[in-house]
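FAQ
Q: What does a multi-component entry look like?
A: The components come first, one per line:
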Amino acid sequence: MSNRYLIADREYELSASIPLSSTQKKLDATLVELAKQGDKIAFRELYQQHHQRVYALCFRLAGQKELAEEATQDTFVRVWQKLPQFKGESQFTTWLHSLTVNQALNCINKHKRFWDRFLPEQLDADSAASVIDYDGLDKLIIRLPERARIIFVLYALEGYQHDEIAKRLNIAPGTSKAQYHRAKKLLQEMI
Amino acid sequence: MANNSNQLAQLIDDAPKEMTPAEDLWPEIARRLDAPTTAQPNQLWRPFALVSLLLLALLIGKPFLTPEIAAQNHDALLATLAVINTQHQQQVTELAQQATHVDWQISPYGQPVENGIKQLKDAAKQIYQNLQLNPTDKQLWQLWLWTQQREIELIKQGQNLPVIQQKAGEII
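Then the predicted structure of the entire assembly, as tokens:
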């Protein structure tokens, strides 16, 4: 599957499926070093370089625009706070990818806990399904149940393995596989 | 079904790696980067609890310490005493500021609470003075910490008292 960009050292890059150019890597490294020293202009440039990819990942995990926007903002605020801890042992995009997934999942859980007190699950699903401004796969995955959607996105689009997804979501690998097949079946029915 | 499977694989392959958010997300991010990271008011009890815990551990371990170490700890205890006293006063001041918004003193039930707080304050003051003279007295420590805790509890209870609107005057 060409869009799964599992790289040799089993890390994931928050870039396009084509490898990052050396120029892009150098630019990232320079901007990161400046941002680490508190340079907000450099940090804004980092945001400009990567926010569309971060937003795409957040949108597909969250399944709705508002939550994706909040998760994207949370991610970049977290990046700013944690930048001093980034030692450059992995690529910045790899680090950013991991942080984005964590932040998006936290954001989803936070909202779920909050809204669960007021709304039945059905209403939540309806609000996600009302988003019609998307094409192709994105139009379909927002109609998936939350757990199945998250697992499908992480496995099919982001290249995670089921045992890694299981660890992230604190579930059994078998549950991850079952949810992936459920999502796949539902998507095939939707097509 | 096989056709659907192929179509799904194609959709996955064609899915764009990037999406543009409908709104500019940077201004909110920039605002949050500038926001100072201050401790929340409701976390003020944490340093107090930590110091109390350390103090309790120190008092329990006192018999095992050598006399020389105990003498050194004398100064440390006095310093700790002063720190706890300051933190307690800060907490009381903050609660008093909240009271200006709640105005619980005009409650008909407010007077007994105020009397209780005053008695506790007086008792705590006397215990504090005695503790300064004898900072290794475990029972005095426990009594002093209890009076402080009780004072805070009473102030908080007072702020939750019902207020009669006719007598309330100006309530913010």
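Q: Is there any commentary attached?
A: Sometimes. For this entry: Chain A is about 70% helix and 0% strand.
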